[in-house]
Structures are given as structure tokens and as C-alpha cells.
Amino acid sequence: MLDLARQYRTLHEELLRALEHVLETQQFILGEQVSTFEQAAAKRLGVAYAVGCSSGTDALWLALAAAGIGPGMAVVTTPFSFFASVSAILRAGAVPVLADIDPVTFNLDPAAVEVVLESGRGAGAGAILPVHLYGQCADWRGFSRLGRVRGLTLIEDAAQAWGAEWDGHSAGALGTAAAFSFYPTKNLSAAGDAGMVTTNDAELAERARMLRQHGMRRRYHHDEIGWNARMDGFQGAVLNVKLKYVAGWSDARRALAARYDRLFRAAGLAEPGTCPTHGIVLPGEVPGARHVWHQYVIRTARRQALRDFLTARKIGSEIYYPVPLHLQEALKGLGYGEGSFPEAERAAREVLALPIFPELREDEQQTVVDAIAEFLS
Ligand SMILES: Cc1ncc(COP(=O)(O)O)c(C=O)c1O
Fold first, then answer.
1. How far from 87 is each of 22, 56, 90, 166, CA to CA, in Å?
2. Looking at ligand 1, which atom is closest to the CA of residue 60?
3. Residue 51 · residue 196 · CB < 8 Å
4. What's the CA-to-centroid distance between 373 and ligand 1, angstroms?
5. For residues 341 and 4, what is the distance between their CA atoms, to the nearest angstrom?
6. From the CA of 230, how far away is ligand 1's center (Å)?
7. pLDDT band (50, 70, 90) for residue 120
8. pTM score, two decimals?
9. Do 150 and 126 meet the contact criterion of CB atoms below 8 Å apart?
10. Is 82 in the pocket of ligand 1 (CB under 6 A)?
11. Candidates 54, 55, 57: which one to mutate for ligand 1, based on the most atoms within 8 Å of Cβ?
12. Which of 88, 107, 109, 143 lies at a 20 to 30 A Cα distance from 286?
């Protein structure tokens, strides 16, 4: 599914030198490597501020808290994402309110959010938190209009979307603030847990910096209850190295996705629409978006059988995500149930992610396509 060692082999000398530099300078927590990365990342994304932190989960919490989202407020988000998109809202003391997804992109649907905001459920909404799932930006035209018209803060969950764009603007530069994850499997990844908040708002950035250090502006003077959510120097050093290459990796992912598309179509396996019957539904790039293919996710009506077939041939696949968030045990208290979000529930039954990473070889990709063709025949 993913062979991270291939990337490491191409970078190992450079990475070891960078890590050694951290050991020599002994700047293990924040420090020079982290601030260098923050500045370079902000410049790359076209934002004024970037605040490095300990994980994508903490970045979501920091972005929400620094934007003033807290108790007594609701945040509208998607039921089809990683757990942290919702748990960070609860951690900030706010109430997650969910709306269904667009079946084409799997992203939160602005029209569904509008319906929720019109209903009683959206009362007290202070923010919308769209997730750029699988590496494609959520419909930012729709969300910026909603934010403007209703006076809502927009927080991007850009954990899976380093390098993605909407109308030529980078993910991370679209909302009031954004959260990135540099978890090792992400398109831009650290050698452990790391994350980052981005924003153009000076006050928000300053507050995020303070909150990641137990609410300290001055050493041992605590203005607010923050948390320990700092990025460490080793992660900053690794990210500084990888930042130089990540644009090329995004291009490689885009080329691989285009090739999957060609191969599946040439083999006659692609079905139109979003409801698979005998074939597979391919993922696509919608107008306005520059997709960076964190995942290449097909839909299939016979997912388990296909997955078993691929596994028997030593082909990796993965399900992101098998249980939508409103049906998670830990989130029962939100008051939703089976049938609340039909598109998220159908996606959870049908999606299957196929191998895609910059170093994936063409012959390996052909093997994946051939195996799926054999299964469907
Ligand atoms: C959409 C999404 N949001 C948030 C997170 C949380 O990031 P992290 O694992 O770095 O805490 C992840 C990554 O796992 C993610 O995929």
C-alpha cells in the first residue's frame, strides 16, 4: 500500500545530516529548525503565519481555540473523515454539528451545510470545518460564500492536502485558519508526529503560539489554559529537508492518478456516476481543484471480496473510513444514528483506497489494475 522506505533511501544522507545538526545544536523543542520550517512553509503556501505543533490533531484544536471557538458554540463539519476532525471540536469545548458529503468528492457539501444552518441544529454555529479529504479541496466557492453571508469562521482541515489548491490558492491559505498533519504517511511527512496551523491573522497566530506552550507569553506567566503542543526540533529538521522535494512528489502523485484513470478506462472497468454496480467508480478532480492524491479511492459494490482478492495477491488496499463519525461509539452522544447521513454511510460501505505514493512503479500500478480487471471479470 505504501513503502516509505523508498523515499528514505533517496534522502537518507541529507536527513541524517539534518538530524545531526539538531543534536549538535541541542535545540530539541521548537528552536531554529522549527522556525526555519515555519517561515519556509508559510512562504510556500502564501500565508503570513505558520505555527508548528505536535500533531495534526493538536493543530485542529489550536486553530479552533486560537480563533475563539469554544463552549457555547457549534462547529459544522463532515461525518466522513478521520476522528480528529470531530474530536478536536469537542476538545475545544464546542459542539460538532454534522452535515452530509458530496458523493463525487467525498467532501462536506456546502448545500447540506446550508440546510443544517437553516434548521434548528445549526443554532449557535460559530464556524465551519471542511476537510480536504484524500488531497482534494472542499468546494471553497460554496464555503467562502457561506462564511461571508453568515459571518462564520472557516477552519480548514488540510491534514491530507499539502500542495492542494482551489482556484490557484493553496490549501491552508483559504480559511481563517488551517490545520496540517505531518504524520509519517502524509504527502509531506515528519519522522513522527507533527502538525502546523496556518493563518493570515496576526492575532490568531500569536494566540496559537501562546496556546501551544501552556498559554505562556512570558516564561512561567500563564495567560490562558493552553497545552503542551510544541513541534520538536528533529521533526522541524526532517520537514525542512522534505519541503524541498514535496512539489515534485505531488506531481508524481498526479501523474500516477492520471495513469490509473487511463488504465482503468482502457480496460473498460470505469462506471459513470457515483453508484457502482458491476464495475468501479473512479475518483476525479473537480473544476477549481488541484488534487494532490493523498489517496486514490475507488468505489465498489463488492468491497470486501475485492479487498480479499487483492490481499491474496499481496496488493495492499485500505478503507478510509469504514465507520462514519456519527456512528462511532465515542460520538453516540451527538445524537445521530443510522440513516442520518446517507451519502457518508454509503461511502463508508463502498470506498477502497489503492496504492499511490510518489515512488510507486508503473509495473506495480499495472499489477493493481490487472488484478482488479481479473476480479471484475
Ligand atoms: C483529515 C485528518 N484530520 C486530522 C488528522 C490528525 O492528524 P494527526 O494524526 O497528525 O494528529 C488526520 C491524520 O491522521 C487526518 O487525516
1. 33, 12, 5, 26
2. 4
3. yes
4. 33
5. 35
6. 16
7. confident
8. 0.98
9. no
10. yes
11. 57
12. 88
